[in-house]
Amino acid sequence: MKKKFWEFRNEADGPVELLIYGQLVSGESWFDTDVAPKEFADDLKECAGKDILLRINSPGGDVFAAQAIYNLLKAYKGKVTAHIDGICASAATLVACAADSVVMPKNAIFMIHNPQTMVISYMDEKGLTKLAGIMDKIKDTIVGVYASRCGSKSSVQDISDMMDEETWMSAEDAMGKGFADEIDEDYDVHMKMENGSICMNAVSMSLSEKGKLKMQCITEAKENKKEMTNGELISKIQELLGIGVQAKATEPAEDPKVVAERQRVKALDEMKAKCTNKFAIAFIDKCKETGKTAEEAKPFVETLSAIKDEPSEGARIQAIGKLIRDNMDSGAEGVSAAPASSGMEDAAKKKQADITDVVNRINRIRGTK
Length: 369
Hints:
This protein is an alpha/beta fold.
């Protein structure tokens, strides 16, 4: 057997350190010989139930090796705490799930995906179908491990979907989904991306396109999360406490006439938005041009909105005149500025002028000479 991919550090005092760095089973299958699983089981037995600090920095590897280590650690009597020293991806995540608690530095990475295999011989349709069935069974066992760790934070379907999508998680993401329990704020992971790979604390892993995008987001977020200077901190406190707000309040106020004009036009636009009658819409546009308010326009808009499509232009215009005349008789305001007059004759002329003005405008809108 080649060099072991795990290392136990069993000192006299303190917990046992179990380091799993790099690929799980590099260069040969876990079950090519029974030496590897037996050696791991023997090494674990020598820990004699002491607490274990499981340190993981691995891109994954043989899923069967990971499942075997998971089962051995789950059956271990001592407490197992996993610490993600950089990256925990693919099959390595199964090993992490064996721990009683999982701690991740804020910029560590946790990644899960569907099981994968490599086909290097010719296969027919039946052979490929059988292989696909085997892969489904392997996925089921992995989903079971993840579901046991995540509890109520992620359902079986959620986990299956995450595996389908190849999900890359920061420490916060992993905690939210139940894969991690605590963030280590003091441990800093050194990472570098180059040539399509990520190197985290001296362990490298090739990235898929999705992995590259996720790692870019994480590294950019880390770079942009800078500490505030003393000046920025003081300014932020002043803002929160409202200190210095008086200076803004002394700035010159906007011209009341400008404000009033903006509000007038806005009110007419809101009235127009509720209209479906073409006569009323044209009338509102004219009011905007001539300085009339929504309040002044309202009775005529309501009148014009009641006009139905008459069989001829003459009948339509007569209907408009009648409705406006009835509206004026009910006491509504006119659309033209009232001339200074107190006589009954002037009032009657003004009313007739208003009616004629509206009718003439609608004639022009409709194209009638």
